[in-house]
Design goal:
Elements: H1 13-24, H2 29-39, E1 40-47, E2 52-59, E3 62-69, H3 71-76
Antiparallel strand pairs: 1-2, 2-3
Length: 89
């Protein structure tokens, strides 16, 4: 945070862009980050070999797993795929 108590995001370009977008929408980013820290159950940082990262979060009593990375690697992990019209492919 800077001297005006404004959070200045750094790190991954995608994450920084999303945080800045939330800030422009006047979303309290610092609160979201604090909540994330208390909800995080497991974290596998980005691996340049695997080309993805994974985070498991507990939200409202349910654990959700988020995978972020190279599209060709993420798609390999999918059990189902859907067409733009919602039809399962």
């Amino acid at each position: 945070m800077n001297e005006n108590a404004f959070y200045i995001p750094v790190g991954n370009g995608t994450d920084v862009s999303l945080l800045k977008w939330l800030q422009r929408a006047e979303i309290p980013v610092h609160t979201l980050i604090k909540n994330k820290e208390t909800q995080l159950r497991a974290n596998f940082p980005f691996s340049s070999d695997e080309k993805y990262s994974i985070a498991a979060m507990e939200i409202d009593g349910k654990v959700r797993v988020y995978l972020k990375g190279a599209p060709e690697e993420v798609l390999k992990k999918c059990a189902q795929k859907f067409h733009a019209n919602g039809e399962q492919v």
